[in-house]
């Protein structure tokens, strides 16, 4: 073997080493299939807007102007990823509010009265994240339209209320439209975001604020109106 | 040489096996707190039963003593100990029983169920003479305790102190009663007795500390001092006495299922861990009152929601939604 051949071999090896190193250090993105979302906010059901109440305000009389604290968890699955992302989401939440029950004369009783709601929602959504991923704009506007079902129950003391033979529990159907904007946290710590993806499979994380217009009264039927107009805030993780 | 050593070792191990001492295991069906059997005054003359079983051997000519003692178990039973059984053969199991009354009678200063006023404990013992040595099956002169676990029978003749009622809070169809003076691990019992009828009937006796038929406002707290006057004639009850109980330290006792507008006499007592009951507290009165929750207010205001059947249908629908969520998630895991 000539010395020229050996020299060529060594040169080829030296060239190959950086190539190998480069292959190892290039970050890889895991596939993005869905998202998990945690959110919370004030929820004030529009009970007092029911026409049959003729302007009376049982919710306000019991709870004042206070809202329920609503906590929700949502799972999304992406079915389209191109110019933005679209898919379906399912969410479940829980909200409750306590206050003193009232005596006939309007003064506070020792018993606690409570309203508890468990909103479930199936929605379709679209989020315009093309600009975020393509041009680095960290804001992602989005919208959702969903079918809502809200089991509810009212308690006094430790038991569900019963008035005139009717038990204070049930469920209401309705719909909700939501618009919001997310802030892509990846831009603050890109390296951490990459590690989050490679270690846990979380592609992107966002903080968001959204406004929901919900009509939950059996689509205009009589009875309790659990619809609301509310702001919610939370954290979303794409995986 | 090696053969001799092996033979010696085999011989020695056989000798050790022969001198394995006896060991007794006790069990009981009595109510225990750990290994302590609590006996209230009322059960002073009631037998406490233990089963026993044993393993191992007695030394040659030795006996196994089962007895009850105030002192430690590693000796032969003395004059102040209550002997339960003496085993000299190979009997492997049996039962023994005794009453606290019998044990009290053998104390250095004998007492009875009536005169023993302070708490006293007795150890359940099993003892036997030890082997002379590991190679010698004859008995040594010393005893050792061979029973386990170390059961203690604790006689607690002292009833708890009379409790007091700190507050009676009127609630809708219920009274919430705060009982003071309960010791830990005891049970608080609240007894309520109707003194008026639902239609506002009057009390037989108007001299009670709280006026007959007086309706206590919801949230109003009756001080513990507001009790029926001593010496006054207690009003006659018009209904049965209802009893409600709760472990001490778990908050107020809630007497529920009562009738709004009816005045009830409320008394409390404490039952300690052993089962001794205190005297009833001084009586306090309370009257449940109707209060309105959100649904009351809503219906009163003319709201048309009535819940009921819609809840059932909705529950099915909600369950279906959640099932769909589960199936979807399961499918997602398979894909990933």
TrEMBL record, chain A:
The keyword Signal applies. Keywords: Signal. Residues 1-21 form the signal peptide. NCBIfam families: MXAN_2562_fam (NF040596). This is Outer membrane protein beta-barrel domain-containing protein. It comes from Corallococcus llansteffanensis. The lineage of its organism: Bacteria, Pseudomonadati, Myxococcota, Myxococcia, Myxococcales.
TrEMBL record, chain B:
Keywords: Membrane, Signal, Transmembrane, Transmembrane helix. It comes from the Bacteria. Residues 1-17 form the signal peptide. This is Fibronectin type III domain-containing protein. The chain crosses the membrane at residues 310-329.
């Amino acid at each position: 073997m000539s010395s020229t051949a050996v020299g060529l071999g060594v040169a080829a090896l030296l060239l190959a080493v950086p190539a190998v190193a480069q292959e190892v250090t290039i970050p890889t993105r895991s596939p993005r299939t869905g998202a998990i979302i945690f959110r919370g906010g004030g929820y004030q059901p529009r009970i007092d807007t029911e026409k049959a109440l003729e302007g009376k305000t049982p919710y306000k009389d019991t709870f004042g102007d206070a809202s329920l604290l609503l906590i929700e968890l949502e799972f999304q699955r992406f079915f389209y990823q191109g110019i933005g992302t679209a898919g379906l989401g399912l969410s479940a939440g829980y909200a409750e509010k306590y206050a003193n029950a009232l005596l006939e004369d309007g003064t506070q009783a020792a018993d606690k009265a409570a309203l508890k709601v468990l909103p479930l929602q199936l929605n379709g959504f679209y989020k315009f994240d093309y600009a975020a991923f393509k041009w680095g704009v960290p804001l992602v506007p989005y919208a959702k339209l969903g079918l809502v079902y809200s089991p509810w129950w009212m308690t006094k003391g430790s038991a569900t209320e019963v008035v005139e033979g009717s038990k204070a529990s049930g469920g209401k159907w309705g719909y909700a439209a939501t618009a919001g904007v997310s802030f892509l946290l990846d831009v603050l710590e890109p390296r951490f975001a990459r590690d989050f993806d490679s270690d846990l499979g979380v592609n992107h994380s966002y903080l968001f604020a959204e406004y929901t217009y919900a009509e939950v009264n059996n689509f205009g039927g009589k009875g309790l109106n659990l619809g609301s107009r509310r702001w919610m805030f939370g954290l979303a993780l794409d995986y | 040489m090696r053969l001799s050593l092996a033979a010696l070792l085999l011989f020695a191990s056989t000798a050790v096996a022969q001198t394995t001492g006896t060991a007794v295991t006790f069990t009981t069906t009595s109510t225990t707190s750990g290994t302590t059997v609590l006996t209230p005054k009322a059960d002073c003359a009631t037998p406490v039963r233990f089963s026993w079983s044993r393993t191992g051997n007695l030394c040659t000519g030795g006996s196994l003593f089962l007895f009850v003692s105030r002192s430690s178990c590693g000796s032969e039973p003395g004059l102040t100990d209550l002997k339960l059984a003496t085993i000299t053969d190979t009997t492997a199991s049996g039962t023994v029983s005794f009453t606290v009354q019998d044990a009290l009678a053998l104390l250095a200063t004998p007492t009875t169920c009536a005169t023993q006023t302070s708490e006293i404990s007795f150890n359940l013992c099993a003892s036997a003479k030890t082997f002379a040595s590991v190679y010698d099956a004859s008995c040594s002169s010393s005893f050792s305790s061979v029973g386990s676990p170390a059961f203690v029978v604790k006689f607690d003749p002292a009833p708890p102190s009379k409790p007091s009622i700190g507050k009676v809070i009127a609630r809708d169809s219920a009274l919430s009663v705060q009982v003071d003076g309960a010791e830990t691990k005891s049970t608080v019992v609240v007894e309520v007795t109707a003194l008026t009828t639902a239609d506002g009937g009057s009390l037989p006796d108007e001299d009670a500390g709280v006026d007959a038929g007086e309706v206590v406002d919801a949230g109003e707290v009756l001080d513990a001092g507001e009790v029926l006057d001593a010496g006054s004639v207690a009003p006659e009850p018009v209904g049965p006495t209802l009893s409600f109980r709760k472990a001490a330290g778990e908050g107020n006792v809630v007497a529920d299922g009562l009738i709004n507008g009816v005045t009830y006499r409320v008394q409390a007592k404490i039952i300690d861990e052993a089962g001794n009951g205190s005297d009833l507290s001084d009586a306090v009165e309370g009257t449940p009152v109707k209060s309105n929750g959100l649904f009351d207010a809503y219906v009163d205001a003319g709201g048309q929601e009535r819940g009921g059947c819609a809840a059932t249908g909705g529950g099915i629908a909600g369950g279906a939604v959640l099932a769909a969520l589960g199936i979807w998630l399961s499918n997602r895991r398979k894909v990933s």
